[in-house]
């Protein structure tokens, strides 16, 4: 039996770290491709056995079969959804996080790590122009970030209605159809209702349309407005300034979902699109999307963290030693109790490279996106659907049916050349590039467009 024996443990650690080192330094990374369950069953068989496989066999199965049946999100030709392309430093530091057994929920247990995470959060808060009092926590993803923020918004609105004796119990969230699917899903979790606001001709949420929706349904029935800075499908940034003004006028919580696009705050060439974000009551950005951190990492920030603490702190006798302490306990600001210090890979990479390198890398992806848009305009067989605001470009291949798009996608994936899936907008099948990987070059873009001719 492969027991917990010291020599075997050392050998296993060496094997795992050797693989991690190799993968972290791999250049180029292979795209790889999925396999059917039947294929994997045949190739891998049963792995959980009473005696154990031993490190050599288990690692071998992972390295030579299982890992190769997973797409590498950091491949430069992976341009679907929103890819994840961490810096080597960030990805390597994730190994340290795993090795360190740090409980990231409380200051008492994770002070050093929480201090470092909070510095990374501060950098993001400063980019958004949030006040010194702002603070938050790294959560697993934008979905949990949106849910956590909306729970605080509702808690705050209902407490205020109670204090004012109005008897109101607001249950509605205002957002456009372009808001992320997680907003609708998390509203369902909260038993809240998302009330659709029509977009303008640039596909943006605006203050005027928001005001009309609030008036139509009764502003007292709303507890939050969700604006997006960088919609997932198109990268559209809502008109945050006018939306912020309407939120302030009605006293409704202003949440900004920047899960994908929030990183653009660091890029001078697009910074003015975000004008008004400094008024957000809460704001999220996923460093695992466009800030070069590994999965899974979302920065959740509140203008007034005390409101979040009141809404989220879990009370239990055995937790009193933590919750009654005056220090910053990250777990008090979101859904969830036990917490991995998932902000540390971002922190380490930021500390190593400095923020200027981030500005440059983000501007680099924007430059490649602008090149892609120009190439699409130049070629007669493809057509831009909308000028990109950020680093997503959506386009059509003239004359292609949905089946043609899918066949093209499958071919590029089978060849392990690129991963570019179709998307739909207003009933039409299209395709899109999401450029968040600094290793995606203009040459990659041209080569992919060539395959559509
Ligand atoms: C990706 C995304 C989310 C969800 O984030 P997860 O990390 O996938 O949970 C929410 N909002 C927007 C705008 C996104 O792009």
UniProtKB/TrEMBL annotation:
GO molecular function term, any single one: aromatic-L-amino-acid decarboxylase activity
Keywords: Decarboxylase, Lyase, Pyridoxal phosphate
Cofactor(s) the protein needs: pyridoxal 5'-phosphate
One GO BP annotation of this record: carboxylic acid metabolic process
Top-level taxon of origin: Bacteria
Entry-linked PROSITE patterns: DDC_GAD_HDC_YDC
Location of N6-(pyridoxal phosphate)lysine modifications: 289
Membrane spanning residue stretches: none
Family: Belongs to the group II decarboxylase family.
Protein name as annotated: Glutamate decarboxylase
């Amino acid at each position: 039996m492969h027991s917990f024996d010291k020599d075997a443990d050392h050998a296993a650690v060496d094997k795992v770290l050797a693989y991690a080192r190799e993968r972290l330094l791999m250049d180029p990374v292979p795209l790889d491709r999925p396999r059917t369950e039947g294929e994997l069953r045949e190739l891998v068989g049963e792995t959980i056995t009473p005696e154990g496989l031993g490190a050599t066999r288990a690692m071998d199965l992972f390295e030579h079969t299982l890992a190769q049946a997973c797409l590498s999100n950091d491949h430069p030709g992976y341009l679907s959804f929103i890819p994840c392309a961490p810096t080597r430093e960030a990805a390597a530091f994730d190994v340290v996080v795993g090795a360190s057994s740090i409980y990231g929920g409380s200051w008492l247990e994770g002070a050093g790590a929480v201090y470092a995470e909070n510095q990374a959060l501060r950098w993001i808060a400063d980019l958004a122009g949030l006040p010194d009092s702002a603070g938050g926590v790294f959560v697993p993803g934008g979905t949990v970030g949106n849910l956590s923020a909306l729970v605080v918004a509702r808690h705050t609105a209902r407490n205020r209605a109670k204090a004012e004796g109005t008897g109101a119990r607001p249950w509605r969230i205002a957002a456009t159809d372009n808001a992320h699917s997680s907003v609708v899903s998390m509203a369902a979790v909260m038993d809240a209702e998302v009330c659709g606001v029509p977009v303008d001709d640039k596909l943006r949420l605006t203050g005027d349309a928001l005001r009309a929706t609030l008036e139509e349904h009764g502003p007292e029935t709303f507890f939050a407005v969700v604006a997006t800075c960088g919609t997932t499908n198109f990268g559209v940034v809502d008109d945050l300034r006018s939306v912020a003004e309407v939120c302030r006028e009605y006293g409704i919580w202003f949440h900004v979902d920047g899960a994908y696009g929030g990183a653009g705050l660091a890029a001078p060439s697009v910074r003015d699109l975000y004008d008004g974000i400094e008024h957000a009551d809460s704001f999220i950005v996923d460093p695992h999307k466009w800030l070069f951190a590994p999965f899974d990492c979302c920065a959740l920030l509140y203008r007034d963290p005390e409101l979040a603490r009141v809404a989220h702190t879990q009370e239990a006798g055995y937790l009193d030693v933590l919750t009654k302490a005056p220090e910053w306990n990250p777990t008090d600001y979101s859904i969830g109790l036990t917490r991995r210090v998932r902000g540390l890979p971002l922190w380490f990479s930021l500390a190593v490279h400095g923020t200027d390198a981030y500005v440059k890398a983000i501007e680099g992806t924007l430059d490649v996106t602008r090149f892609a848009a120009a190439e699409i305009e130049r070629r007669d067989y493809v057509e831009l659907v909308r000028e990109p605001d950020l680093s997503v470009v959506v386009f059509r291949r003239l004359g292609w049916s949905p089946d043609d798009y899918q066949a093209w996608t499958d071919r590029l994936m089978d060849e392990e050349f690129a991963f570019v899936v179709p998307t739909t907008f207003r009933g039409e099948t299209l395709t899109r590039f999401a450029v968040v990987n600094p290793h995606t070059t203009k040459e990659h873009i041209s080569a992919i467009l060539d395959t559509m001719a």
